[in-house]
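Final report, Chapter 2: Outcomes

The project's central promise was a pipeline that accepts a single protein chain and returns its three-dimensional structure in a standardized token representation, suitable for archiving and comparison. That pipeline is now operational. To close this chapter, we reproduce one record exactly as it appears in the project archive, with the input sequence first and the structure output second.
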Amino acid sequence: MKRLSGLISSAGRLLRRRRNRGSAQVARSETGPYVTRIISDSILFNEIPSPTEKEAARTGYIAQRLGEFGYVEAAADDVGNVVAMVPAGERTEEHVLLFADIRCEDYSPVDSMTKLEADRVRGKGIAESSVATAALLVLAEYLARNEIQYDRNIVLLFTSFDPGRRELQPLESFLRDWKDRLRCAAQVRGLDLGRVEDRPLGTCKLSVSARTEERAVAAGEPGVTAIWVLASIASRLGSITWDTENHTFLNISRIEAGVGFGWFASEGVLELEVFSPNAATLDVARKAVEATIGGIARETGAAVDVSVKAFLPAGDPQINQGLTSVVRAVYERLHIKPHPVSLPGCASVLSSFGIPAVTLGMTTGAKTYREEFIHLRPLETGFRQLLAFLDECAGWKQKERA
């Protein structure tokens, strides 16, 4: 990719290149206006429909914004990725990747209308994808406006990843082309500021639908009902020990059945997820779950269907060990309280390509069944975290080899 015009000159630079220490120590007044832009861009982006074909509506907005910052070659590719490149001060084949998932599976024309309050922004999708995408866009603007360069090329990727899809996905397509050039990577997420992934987990999410004979309450004894079938599945799966260390576990995330009063429940859905830090154990557990469900279906005579809703591989803690130490150092510098989490994420996909990758959360907030929101105050710390991460990773491999 050709170097972007306007990024070669070092005049007026607010951050120094990585060889000059302390470049991540940015004054609050220098980042404040950009943090305000993260908020406004999050609100605008959140109301763009998703998912759409190749996320065309969202990638079009992203490419337009990047063009305004001087990234003249940024455009959506054939699968729905948008890439912005910040070249290093001197020629190098090493790259550091920051990426955000722009897709929102919970988008709703009504529920995704945002509400700005004194200390937070509410709206479906705001924490899932919008604030992360906005943060990456504003980072691109910050680096361009201030003509910042590092010892390594910086790649900003706006992509999408649907764990339930079987076919090649935009993120995987990008990684196949770039895997030999990426030294390390970070996924930017909306929530979990201070997240540390010491033991990244893989997950398999399953949806189980059950159908039994439809009968009114007045008909007498209910016999086998959908609720009974789904409850039996949940109970039997809950009693299984998956491994001797108890590192593999199952969560029943949702049970819904019946149409209301006056009828025995004849159809329903159960959603569950299996977590494990070991890829082989995760696969064995998935097969055991499907076999157990099949056995209950035969016992009860109910029509039961099982589908895989999502799958994410387990990350490799050995590959990520050095990068995790870098993240902890960034947290210490910025007085961010680290909190270890064992949650699956898109960053684990990069482990399967041999690329060290971590997750960086932008702020705090919540995503629940009833509401979704982000807190505004921590966003400045989250943005400064991205700058500090880039500063550290510009020389991370050099330090590792020394």
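Archive annotation: The CA atoms of residues 173 and 383 lie 28 Å apart.
This record, like all others produced under the grant, will remain available to the consortium after the project formally closes.
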